[in-house]
Amino acid sequence: MSSNRPRIGVPVDCKLIGTDPSHVVGEKYLAAVAHAADSIPLVLPARAAGAELASLETQISADDQLADLDGLFLTGSPSNMEPWRYGSDAPGVGPFDPQRDANNLALLGAAMARDMPVFTVCRGFQELNVACGGTLYTAVQDVPGLSDHRDDHDAPRESRYAPVHPVALTEGGWMANLLGTREITVNSLHGQGIDRLGDTLVAEARAPDGLVEAVRHRDLTFVAGVQWHPEWRYDDNPVSKALFHAFGDAARAYRHRRLTG
Ligand SMILES: N[C@@H](CCC(=O)NCCCC(=O)O)C(=O)O
C-alpha cells in the first residue's frame, strides 16, 4: 500500500557534471523535505531546452508537472537569475542557469494559481520574489548601506553554513507566531538579495541592514521563503524543523483536499 505522505516537487539545477549537461538537486534539500517535512520529494527535470535536451515545454506543461503533487520546494543554488527576468538591463553576475529560471518561474506561477503549498530557500526565495513582480540586487555587498551576505567559498562547509547574523521577525507576523520569537540567528550564503519586494509578498524577517530575509504570500495558504538555509543540519535546529514541519502540514492538507475533492 503506497504512503499517503504528500508528494513534493523539487525542481533541479542544470549544470555540467564533468562535460555532461546534467539535472541535479542537492542531497540536503531532499533529506529535509523527506524527514523534516515528512513528505516524498520528487525531483522535477527542467523542461526548458538545454545543450542536449530539446524543450519539453510543449509536451509537459508546468501544470502537467504539478498535477499529481501536493507541494513545491525550490532549493538554493550557486547560480544567479538572469537580470532580464526582473526587468534589469544589468549584465548581472554569473554563473547563470537559464533553464532553471524558465522552469521555476513557470512552476511558481502554476503552483500559486492553484494555491499549492510552496516553500523556497535562498535562490528559490529570490525566484519567488521575481515571480511575484519583485526585483533583486545583483550584488548586495556593492549596495551602499547593505552588508556582505556572502560566505567564504574556501571555508569548510561546517563554517560556511554556520549561523552568522540575526534576523528580526516581523511583529505579529506568520513566522514570528510560528516560531514564538522575534529574533533568530541564520546562516548566510548569498550575493544577491531582494531589492523591490514582490507586490503580493509580505516581509516576515529582515537582517540588521534591512535586507528582507523571509517572505510569505499575502493571500495564499502557504507560499513562503527564506534567504537562509534551513535544510542545513535541520535536525539540530528547532527553527528549521518548525518551518519544514509547517510546510509538510500544509502539503498534507492540500493532498487531502486534492484527493477527497
Ligand atoms: N546564487 C544566489 C543564491 C545563493 C544560494 O542559493 N546559495 C546556496 C548555494 C549552495 C547550496 O545550495 O547550499 C545568490 O548568490 O544570491
TrEMBL record:
GO terms for cellular component: cytosol. It comes from the Bacteria. It catalyses: 4-(gamma-L-glutamylamino)butanoate + H2O = 4-aminobutanoate + L-glutamate. Its EC number is 3.5.1.94. Pathway: Amine and polyamine degradation; putrescine degradation; 4-aminobutanoate from putrescine: step 4/4. Belongs to the peptidase C26 family. Involved in the breakdown of putrescine via hydrolysis of the gamma-glutamyl linkage of gamma-glutamyl-gamma-aminobutyrate. This is gamma-glutamyl-gamma-aminobutyrate hydrolase. It comes from Salinisphaera hydrothermalis (strain C41B8).
